[in-house]
Amino acid sequence: MKKLLFSLGVIIFAMAFAGSARAEILAMANYESKTPESLKALKLSGTQEREEGIAIFDIDPTSETFGDILMTIPLPADLVAHHIFYDRTMTKAYVTALGKGELRVIDMTKMPYRMKVIDVSQCKVGEDVIFNEDNTTWYLTCMGSANVVVGDVKTDEITATISVPGTYPHGLAINTAIDRVLVTNTIKPDLTSPGDTLTVIEASTNKVLGSLNMSNKKDGVAGEGPVEILPAPNANPPIFYATNMTGGSLWTATWNESKKDFDTAEVYNFAASKKGFPLEMYFNKTGDRLYVTVAQPGELYIFDTTDIAKPKMMKVLPTGEGAHHVALTKDGQYAFVQNALLNLPGMSDGSVTVIDLKEEKVVSSFDTFKELGFNPNCIVLLPEWNDFGGH
To answer: Which of 1, 291, 313, 315 is deepest in the core (most CB within 10 A)?
Structure first.
């Protein structure tokens, strides 16, 4: 099995290359070794010690170095790095971890990149990091310890820990105009006992106010597993979209000013067409398109959201098994879909699919990580090219 190499020379080369060239689009992805079962299923031979790291690579399908890894940053092999999130200035990148109570922060303003480690020992199975609108506060969801850690963006000091007992926090969204934070109750870390609710928190006080039902089942547990939540841009009243991972559906939570609470509704059912595990969501700049990844069989759904409360499914594009995160370019030209979810069987292809958003078609893909025996677990573009996609 091939191995990635890390050296000061590679970093210096990457610095010069990124600073002088303009033809490429550079991306960042954290990666981990595939399981032996995944390697066998994909007919990849060889064995290797477990590796984790962050790779910087060229993702421009028109570039001569398309798919080439320019540099890597090694990570502890037992970290199980999960997601990468930029603060709103894109001067910091926060890397969450499933395996350790640690949150890593990369200073994106200095090359070589500097990384610090924040001790978040109260956080087991760290998932998402979300920032409030003025970029003063970050929130880290902890799916294995039923809490949300709150920190100061400037100092990265922890300012509060919000306890949400009996839940599995994963996705989070905030709207300070209505003084609300919503947190998805997803699933146990062993992928059993999916939840059915969103937790409602008062943003100004960190007080838990209650929960919202994200299931059509009136009694008992439906096991919908709401996983990600995203505010709809410029919606009045405020609307949040949520994906039900195990239930296979797309829901909205719409602010009801008269009762100071939300009305929830299912707006699309993926399971009806035997599609499973809807995950991440992104909006285009104008807010009239919503992109949703579905891990099984691996697709990107495109919705018309001209009527923000009633999305209309327009098109489905094939990606790879485990379609998960998407990186969008600032000019609205490309979407890059990272195809791997937690090394799960049938959802760990390891490729990256390139989609032309203006043509709404797949134009390319590359298997660099896959051929090296790795899964990319998250993908973002470097700040020069990256669009937040509504996040």
So the answer is: 291
